[in-house]
Write a structure and sequence with these properties.
It contains eight helices and twelve strands. It is of the alpha+beta class. Strands 4, 5, 6, 7, 8 and 9 form a six-stranded antiparallel sheet that branches. Strands 1-3-2 form a three-stranded antiparallel sheet.
């Protein structure tokens, strides 16, 4: 390996992105970091660091006393902005997750649903609904996924109900391999195609501290400002649920529905 970095190659890009990511989150990056990551020589590590400086000259400052590069307070990323969620997941001690006691959806279920969507196919699902005592087999034509902040749902045409319905992936016992192309034209899913604005305001009956905290959470200049969330009409009920309200809200909770 020569003592240079091929900036346009896949490996060269990976090396430069690594330097940026470490410097961004740690505030410091050294030759040792690069050597351990890419199993390269000290000279090659220096070339990688210099290669990054050639692209982003104001990002790093070399400390002769520490013998490593320190990130500048003015540092700006030139590649994709590093993701906070990806970074904290690397260290368990930095992250406290609430693990909900729900099952994991199998990759086969997800794969078959995506395949069906892309080929306009139907699938047979064994589904446990709230209204049935036992799981039932349904034929559905999956059209899209919705995420309510906790669970994935599939938006699909239900042959039995002759209507578009939401099906929770968690309640699917199994999904067949998609092998049937629609032999009739499905109607337009107007609730999915239609976008709506959910307008709420902070409940004036909440404590002053709670109102101020919610205004900060939602980037409001005043506790009297409206919160406007644009979503597909089919997802509106999930937005209201996540806000802790529903269409019958009278005045309870942190938010009050408008309009």
């Amino acid at each position: 390996m020569g003592n240079s970095v091929k900036k346009d190659s896949w490996l060269g890009q990976a090396q430069l992105r690594y330097v940026e990511e470490v410097a961004w989150w740690n505030g410091v990056v050294s030759r040792r970091d690069v050597i351990e990551k890419f199993s390269c020589s000290g000279q090659q590590a220096s070339a990688i660091l210099q290669g990054y400086l050639e692209l982003n000259s104001t990002a790093l400052e070399y400390s002769t006393s520490a013998r490593r590069y320190l990130s500048s307070p003015r540092m700006q990323c030139i590649f994709e902005s590093p993701k906070f969620e990806e970074e904290i997941e690397k260290e368990e001690d930095l992250l406290g997750l609430i693990q909900r006691p729900v099952k994991q959806v199998s990759e086969e279920v997800k794969r078959h649903l995506i395949m069906a969507m892309r080929h306009d196919s139907s699938v047979q699902i064994v589904y446990q609904s709230r209204s049935d005592q036992e799981p039932q087999t349904r034929e559905i034509y999956p059209r899209a996924f919705g995420f309510d902040g906790v669970r994935y749902h599939v938006r699909a045409w239900c042959v039995k109900r002759q209507a578009y319905r939401d099906f929770s992936l968690l309640r699917m016992k199994s999904v067949s391999y998609p092998d049937q192309v629609a032999n009739y034209e499905l109607p337009v899913d107007t609730e999915w195609e239609q976008w709506v604005e959910v307008r709420v305001m902070i409940n004036p009956d909440a404590s002053e501290g709670t109102q101020m905290a919610l205004a900060e959470d939602y980037n409001l200049s005043s506790v009297h400002d409206e919160v406007v969330i644009r979503c597909r009409q089919a997802m509106e009920k999930y937005v209201l649920y996540n806000l802790g309200i529903d269409s019958e809200l009278s005045g309870e909770g942190f938010f009050r529905l408008l309009g």
